[in-house]
Amino acid sequence: MSGFKVMRAIRVSQFGEPSVLKLCADVKVPQPGSGQVLIRVHACGVNPVETYIRAGTYARKPPLPYTPGTDVAGVVESIGDGVTAVKAGDRVFTTSTLSGGYAEFAVAADESVYKLPDSLDFSQGAAIGIPYFTAYRALVHKAHVKAGETVLVHGASGGVGLATCQLARMLGLRVMGTAGTQQGMELAAKNGAHLVFNHREEDYIGKIMDATEGQGVDVIVEMLSNINLNHDLQMLTFGGRVTIVGSRGSIEMNPRDTMAKESSIIGVSLFSATPAERKECAALLFAGMETGRLRPIVGEEYRLDQAAQAHRDIIQSRGATGKMVLTM
Length: 328
Hints:
- By secondary structure, the chain is α/β, with parallel strands linked by helices.
- The protein is 29% helix and 28% strand.
- Strands 3, 4, 5, 6, 7, 14 and 15 form a 7-stranded mixed β-sheet that branches. A 6-stranded parallel β-sheet has the order 10-9-8-11-12-13, sandwiched between helices. It has a two-stranded antiparallel ribbon with strand order 1-2.
C-alpha cells in the first residue's frame, strides 16, 4: 500500500444537482477482498448515466454515501486471494468498480478488470469501459448485425457514438452517423462513419433516406431516444432495429409505426451482460485495440476536483467530441 491509508475521492451524501459531488481528502483506501483488485487510479471516465444516478432519477440507486465512477484506468496496487489474471504493477482498465472510480484508489472484481494495451495511455484506457462494451452489446448482442447492413449512429461524436462507429466499421457495416456540430461531424467521419449528417438541420432525415435510396437503415444505435425515437422508426427498413442506449425522459409514440415494417425497439443495458458476454466482448476489443483498428478518443479532461463541472458539461454540451475523463 506504500503507506497510503487515506485518499482523495468524490463522495455523494445526497441525490441532487452536480454540487452534491464533494471532494473529500480523508476517505479510507479500500482493501481488496477475495477475487478483487485494488487499482491506483490514473484516470476515470465520466458517463451520462452517472449524472442520472447522482440526480436520483435512475432506476438503480446506490446506498448513500457513495463514490461515482466505473471506467477507471491505472496500475494494479495489490490483489486479493484467488486473483490470477493480473498482478501488482500491471496497467489495467475496468468496466465497473465496487468502491467507485472518482478516487485515487478503487477496488474492482477481477472479472471486470482487463489489461490495458501498451499502445494506449491511461486517459484512453478510461474511455474504453462503458463506451466500447456498450457499443458491442448494442450491435452484436442485441441488434445481431451482419456484415453489409447499414447502421445509423445517432449521436456519433460522443464516447459511445465514436466507439460504435469504429466497431461497426470493423464489423463490415455501412456506417452513417449524426452529430450537432461541424467538429463532431468531422470526428465521426475520421472514426469510421462513411457518411455524417447534422441532426440540427431540419431536413437531415430526408438526406439519410436519400443516402439509402429510400430503403432506410437496418439498425439505429440511439443515444437520445426521448427526442429521436419517432423519427428513428420512420427511417428503418423492413425488419429494422433500434437499440436504445440513452434517454433523458419519456416520449409518446404510436406502436403502429413498428407494425408495417415489423421493426423492433431494443433496450441496451451493460449492467445486464453476463460474464461470458463480457469476456467475448473484451477479447474482440483487445484485438481491435492491439492492432490499432479501435482507438478510444478522449474529449475534455478534468481534474478530480472538477467533477461537478464535468457533470454539468456532459449534459449541457451542444455537441460531444469524445469521451470525457477525470484525471488524478
